[in-house]
């Protein structure tokens, strides 16, 4: 019995160490950004899965081939599975086609990555885009002028010291409410930028209180209804009681706060559809490879979190394809679905929305559960 309790405790600690997902870890973005990612000069000219597996530092895994010249490399021996997890952008220089993995099309994969998948496009075509619903993201500073959010973002700074723009919050905002990447592409977005520091949860609470104050100045139909935080708060944290009080205060004001603890407790996890497959077909989704050794229960429900293209910080019109995503990407996805649901039925509670997501789930080809947005929205419409 003691052994079982120990295993459960360790599992919980690991989940909170992950936080909002793979990318929530504080990566010290120091030095020249061009040095982040996989350095072509430090890997062999003939690249294999084994070569890429050795590139496993945080900066290498996160930034991958972004802004890298791979034109002199032979990637033809790399598997689609391996290369699908490598990030890249439009500045990446690729070798000729016969030196790319068979079936790998960077331009197509890049464009496909913007699609939230699971037939969200069909829902959007019906005019269900989150229009009339105000949503918020609390995360690190970002390029607030990006084309993905022009005309639809209100940007607030929280805390005395602001750090340089960070990919994490920009990706989360893109997935929640981006014009081309977003689940709730028609919603109005409020972004609260908090310093990238070890005390980030303290700033989250300050941001939540600021949202409550902002809402006091907004009309009933304009108030921020839900906020997405791609991070978790450990029950062992020194400020956990204060966090709970902040959440209660937010809920009392009519604000829903979505963060990793909340969705973990309801048995949600993350995965993705390899870009070589149809991402509108739930059968093609798999549990994230990052979780392969975590023994995730088959009762957990997959939310898309891998293989996405989002806005990038290097300019107002740059985008980045991310191979590995994380629970960080799944949290704004669920938040966006809530915005769609409220457009259809504004009287639902968030608990009712989660219940509907669970009730309407479907299965992948591996027999794992996955959300079914189309069935979810149709169920709410009825």
Automatic annotation (TrEMBL):
GO cellular component: membrane
EC number assigned by the record: 3.4.21.111
Keywords of the record: Hydrolase, Membrane, Protease, Serine protease, Transmembrane, Transmembrane helix
Domain annotation Peptidase S8/S53: ranges: 130-260
Coiled coil (UniProt feature): none
Catalytic-site annotation from UniProt: 139 (charge relay system), 168 (charge relay system), 328 (charge relay system)
Signal sequence annotation: none
Name of the featured protein: Aqualysin-1
Protein's gene: pstI
């Amino acid at each position: 019995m003691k052994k079982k309790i120990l295993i459960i405790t360790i599992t919980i600690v690991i989940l909170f160490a992950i936080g909002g997902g793979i990318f929530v870890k504080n990566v010290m973005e120091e030095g020249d950004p061009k040095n982040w990612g996989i350095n072509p000069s430090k890997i062999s000219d003939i690249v294999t899965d084994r070569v890429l597996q050795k590139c496993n530092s945080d900066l290498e895994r996160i930034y991958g081939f972004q802004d890298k010249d791979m034109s002199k490399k032979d990637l033809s021996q790399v598997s689609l599975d391996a290369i699908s997890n490598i990030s890249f952008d439009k500045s990446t220089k690729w070798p000729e086609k016969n030196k790319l993995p068979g079936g790998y099309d960077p331009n197509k994969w890049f464009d496909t990555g913007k699609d939230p998948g699971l037939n969200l496009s069909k829902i959007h075509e019906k005019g269900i885009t989150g229009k009339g619903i105000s949503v918020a993201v609390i995360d690190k500073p970002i390029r607030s002028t990006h084309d993905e959010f022009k005309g639809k973002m209100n940007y607030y700074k929280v805390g005395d010291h602001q750090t340089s723009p960070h990919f994490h919050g920009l990706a989360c905002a893109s997935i929640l409410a981006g014009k081309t990447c977003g689940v709730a592409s028609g919603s109005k977005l409020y972004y609260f930028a908090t310093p990238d520091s070890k005390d980030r949860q303290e700033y989250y609470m300050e941001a939540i209180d600021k949202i409550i104050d902002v809402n006091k100045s907004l009309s009933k139909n304009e108030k921020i209804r839900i906020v997405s935080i791609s991070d978790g708060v450990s029950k062992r944290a020194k400020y956990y009681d204060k966090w709970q009080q902040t959440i209660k205060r937010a809920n009392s004001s009519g604000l829903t706060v979505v963060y990793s603890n909340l969705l973990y407790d309801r048995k949600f996890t993350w995965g993705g559809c390899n870009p070589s497959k149809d991402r509108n077909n739930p059968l093609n989704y798999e549990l994230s490879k990052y979780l392969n050794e975590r023994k995730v229960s088959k009762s957990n429900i997959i939310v898309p979190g891998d293989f996405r293209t989002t806005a990038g910080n290097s300019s107002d019109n740059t985008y980045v394809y991310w191979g590995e995503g994380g629970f960080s990407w799944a949290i704004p996805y669920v938040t966006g679905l809530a915005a769609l649901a409220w457009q259809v039925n504004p009287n639902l509670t968030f608990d009712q929305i989660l219940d509907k997501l669970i009730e309407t789930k479907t299965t992948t080809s591996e027999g794992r559960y996955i959300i079914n947005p189309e069935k979810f929205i149709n169920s709410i419409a009825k």
